[in-house]
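Reviewers of the previous submission asked for a worked example of the structure-prediction workflow described in the proposal, so we include one complete record here. The input consisted solely of the amino acid sequence. No template or homolog information was supplied to the procedure at any stage.
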Amino acid sequence: MNVPDAVQVAAQAKINLRLRILAREDNGYHQIETLLLRIALADIVRIRRTPRARSLDVSGDVDLSALGPVEKNLAWRAAVAHADACAWHGGFAIEIEKHIPIGGGLGGGSADAAGVLRAMNAMSSAPLESLMELGEALGADVPFLTTDAAYALAWGRGERLLALPAPPQRDLLLVVPPFAVNTAEAYGWVDERRPVAEQRRTPARSAHFDTRRMSSWDEIKALSGNAFESVVAKRYPLIDELTAALF
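From that input alone, the workflow returned the following C-alpha cells.
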C-alpha cells in the first residue's frame, strides 16, 4: 500500500448554534447537548514524515501568545495518540498555519487536533476505521471535526453525533474581542452556579428535537443559545456590550 510522506488539510473552525450543559460527571467531565456547524474559516495543518524527530511549529496571523507548551498542545497530543495507536514508525513534523482566533470558542485547537488525526490517518499504512475514540479523549469538539459532516447534533462529551443536512449557506459575522477565554475555566464558572452534589443528583434532560426541521434557519434561531454566554459576560462585560450592538 503506497501512502504519502506528507499531507496538508484544512482544519475548519466550528460554531455552536446551541449549547447546553446537562451534567457534570464524577471525573469532572461535562455532559453536553450542542448543535455544531462548520464554517469556512480554517487553519492549515501540514504533516510530513521524518526519520526519527518529532516537532510542532505554529505560525499565523492571530495572537500566538496564548499557546502553551508543546506537550499540552491538542495537535501534538493528537499526533502522539495516533502514532501510538497505529505503531507509527519514525517521526513527524507538524506545521500549523493559524487563522482561527485562540480562545474564541471557535474550536481552533480542536480543529487542529482533528486535522492532525485526519492527516496522519491518510499517511498510515494501517489507517484507523474511525477517529472518534481518539478524538473523544482530546475534547468535546474533536470527534465532530474528525468527520466530514458539516452540521451535527452532539451529546455526551461530543462523541454521540447525529449528522444533519446543513442549513442554506449564508454569511457569518465573527466579532472577536481582545481577550481569550479558557474553556476549562468557563465550565468551572458554570459549575459555581450549582453545588456539585446537585449537578449530579438532578442533571438536566436532553431536549426533544424534530430533526426534520433542524436545517431551517428559523428553527435554528428558536433553538439557539449558549450556556457559557451569561457566565462569561459576568466576567467580561464587553460580551454584553457587543451583543447589544449587534441586536
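Residues 53 and 149 are 33 Å apart (CA to CA). We consider this example representative of the routine output the project will generate in years two and three.
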